[in-house]
Amino acid sequence: MPEGHHVVVVGGGFGGLQLVHDLKGAPVRVTLIDRRNHHLFQPLLYQVATTVLATSEIAWPIRQLYRDRPEVTTLLGEVKGVDTSTKTVALANGLVVSYDTLVLATGATHAYFGHDEWAPVAPGLKTLEDATTIRRRVLLAFEQAELEDDPARRDALLTFTVIGAGPTGVELAGIIAEMAHRTLPAEFRRIDTRRARIVLVEAGPRILPAFTEELSAYARRELERLGVEVRTGGPVTDCTAAGVMIGDEFVASRTLVWAAGVQASPAAEWLAIEADRAGRALVDEELTAPGHPDVFVIGDTASVKQADGTPVPGIAPAAKQQGAFVARMIRARLEGRPAPGAFRYRHQGSLATIGKRAAIIDFGRIKLKGALAWWIWGVAHIYFLIGTRSRFAVAWSWLWTHLSGQHSARLITQKEILREEASRLQG
Amino acid sequence: MPEGHHVVVVGGGFGGLQLVHDLKGAPVRVTLIDRRNHHLFQPLLYQVATTVLATSEIAWPIRQLYRDRPEVTTLLGEVKGVDTSTKTVALANGLVVSYDTLVLATGATHAYFGHDEWAPVAPGLKTLEDATTIRRRVLLAFEQAELEDDPARRDALLTFTVIGAGPTGVELAGIIAEMAHRTLPAEFRRIDTRRARIVLVEAGPRILPAFTEELSAYARRELERLGVEVRTGGPVTDCTAAGVMIGDEFVASRTLVWAAGVQASPAAEWLAIEADRAGRALVDEELTAPGHPDVFVIGDTASVKQADGTPVPGIAPAAKQQGAFVARMIRARLEGRPAPGAFRYRHQGSLATIGKRAAIIDFGRIKLKGALAWWIWGVAHIYFLIGTRSRFAVAWSWLWTHLSGQHSARLITQKEILREEASRLQG
C-alpha cells in the first residue's frame, strides 16, 4: 500500500463513493469497507421489486469502480466497532484497520416503530435481497391465486398492501397496479388480474408530504386512475400473514410491503455519541462527531441540522453533497488551509413517479407534473447511473417496457424459500 | 377453459415448450405445469455462474410465452405423482389435474454418484439458484483472499476446482481462469489474482469425450493457455470444505464446482416403469411409457435407444426434437391418421466454448475450432434465445464484455448466506 494519510471509509453508498471520488489526487491512501460487494442505486430499487429492472442493472461491484486508483483498497467486511482511542476499526472477521481519518457512511435500514415482528410479513425495501423478496412475493401471489378455488382466499391473494406513501410507497403501488391491470391480464386463465386490489396506506393526512398539496393531490388522482386505493389518515396497527389492520378495520391481504419508517445504522453507538430518535448520530456543522474531529459521519446515518433549523433530508443528493464536503475538509486539513466552514445542504429538487407515464417534480420555483415530468425523471435517473453499460441497459429495459408493455425481470428465484412462501400464502 | 382433448405437460424446459409450440392450432387444450415460473436457457447458465450474464437474460416467465394462446393454462406447481388408472396428476398443493394425454418433460438434476454429502461443498449447475450460488462462492473466495494474511489459507481460497470436463465444466473453468487472469487483477491490492489456480478434474482419459480426439486436444491446449490445470485420468474420491481428493492426492481448494453426474427426475417412479442407471424412464420408440400409450416421456428424463443402439444425448436439440415428435403424434391420433412411426434423433452438431475467444464445433463432416467457431457458437446461441429483448440484451452483454473486459453481473447477493459462507471459507 502507498504511504500517507490513511482515510478509512465505511459504506459504499452515495456518500462514501462521492467522497472517494473527490479524494482523487489527494495525498492520501483510502480503504473503503462495505459489507456488500456492490454499490446499489437505491432510487430505482423499487423497479427491481416490481420486475421492470434486473438486479445487475442497478448495482455495481464497488472494487471495479477503483480499478485505476491504486491508492484505494476495497474490503468486503462488516464493521463491528470503532475504537477512537487507538484510532482503529474492527471487522467481524477479526481484521483491525487503523485510520488517520474515519468516515462513517453506513446508511439506514427500515424500521417498524417497535413492531419488529411485522418484518417477516411486511418486508421493507433497502437491499437487492429485499427487492427480490418483494418481487417473489408479488409474483407468487398471482400464481397462487391462479391455483386457488376458494373465492375469499383468492381475493386475499389478489390484495396487495403498501404501507407508507412516501416516494417509494407511491412508486411501488403504482407499478404493482400497472402490472395487475395492464401486463398480466392476458396471461392468466382462471383469475382476472384486473380485479386485484392495490391498497396504499398512509397514516398522515396526505401522500407524498414532502411535496406541495397540489402535487400531492395530483399524484393521488393519478394513482387512483391506475386502480390504487389510497387510504390516508389511518395508521397501520397490525400486520399478519393474513392481512393488515388499518385503524380498526382488517383488510385481508396476503402481500404486504413496508415503505414507512427508517432506522439509522449503529454509527452513533460505535462512537458512543448522541443520536436522534431514528438512531442518527448528531454531528456538528463540519459533519464531525462531537469530540472526535478526525471522525466524520455522513448520509442517512447522520443527523445534521442546518442554519435554519430544518434537518437535511435522507436522500441521495444530500449524501453526495456531504461526501464532497468531507473530501474538501480532508484536503484543506492536509494542506493546512482553513476549513471550508459549515456544511450547507443545497436542495436540488424532489421527484416521484406514479406508474410508467406520470411523475411530479418540485424544483422550488418550477413545479412539473405529468408526462414531461416523467421524461425528466427518467433522463435524470439514467444520467445518475454509473457507467455507460448500465445507462444503456436501463434505457433499453425502459424502452422495451414502454414499447411492449412487458416487464423483463419477472423471475421467482430461491426455490426453498418459494416452497415456504407458497405454504405461507396458502395460509 | 375451452373444451377438447386435454394435454397436460409437466416441465417447461426445451422439450415441453417445443411441444406446446407445435400444438398451436390443434384441437386440444393444454395445461403446462412447472415448479418454476420461468423457462431457463440452460446452455448459457454457466455464464450467469461466472458473472458474464444476468439471471433475467437467460430466463423467461413461462406464462408470458402463451399470452396469445388462450387454450394454454400455465400452473406453477410441483407434481407429486401420477395416477394412470384415473388419468390424473397430483400437485403438492392438493390440486388434482385430469389429462387425456400426459407428457412428462421434467428434466434432470446433477448427481454425486452416491456421495450426496458432497453437494453442500461442490454445488452443481442446473438452476438459476445454482448459478447465483456458484457466482457468490467464486466472488467471495477472491474477497476473502484479499482479507487473508495466512499464505496457505490464501492459496486455498485462490484455488478453484471444477469437477467433470464435459462442455459445462470446460466452460466454467475457462471463464473462471479468464476472470482471475484478465478481469480482476487491477482491482485487488493485497493479492495477485493471476496467481489463482483453476483445476479441471476429469476421471476419464480426456476432456470433452463427446468430441473427436483432435478437437478435445485443442480444447485442452486452449484451456492450458488460459491458465487452467487440466487433470485427466484421476477420479475425485472426496470433496470437503477444505478441498478435493483426486485419486489419493489432496488439493486444498475452498471453491468446488460439480459438473459431473446427472440424475433424471422421478418420472419413471411416478409411472412405476423401468429406469436406467441414471433414473431415466425407458420409453418405447414412440416415446410412450410401456403399457401407457397416452403417457409420453421426453427430454433428459427419458432414455431412448435409437435403431443403431446408441442413446439419444441429453442435450437441448434432442429434447426439442422429441417435443416436436410428440406434437405430431398427438395431432395424428386426434385426426385418426397413422402415427409418424418411431422417433429418430438427428444430431445437428456439438459445440463447446473455451473462454471468450475460442470454441470447438463438430457438425459431423465439418469440424471447426478457434475464433470462427466462437462466433458461430455465439450467433447460434443468440438465435436460440427466446424473444427480441433477450437477444439484444445478451448480444449487448457479450459485446460489452469483449470491448471493456468487464463482466456485468458480479453481484454477491443473499446476505445471510454470505455470512455463513464467509465463515465456511475462513475454515
Automatic annotation (TrEMBL), chains A, B:
Pfam families: NDH2_C (PF22366), Pyr_redox_2 (PF07992). The keyword Aminoacyl-tRNA synthetase does not apply. Residues 6-323 form the FAD/NAD(P)-binding domain. Its EC number is 1.6.5.9. It comes from the Bacteria. Belongs to the NADH dehydrogenase family. This is NADH:ubiquinone reductase (non-electrogenic). It comes from Sinorhizobium kostiense. The lineage of its organism: Bacteria, Pseudomonadati, Pseudomonadota, Alphaproteobacteria, Hyphomicrobiales.
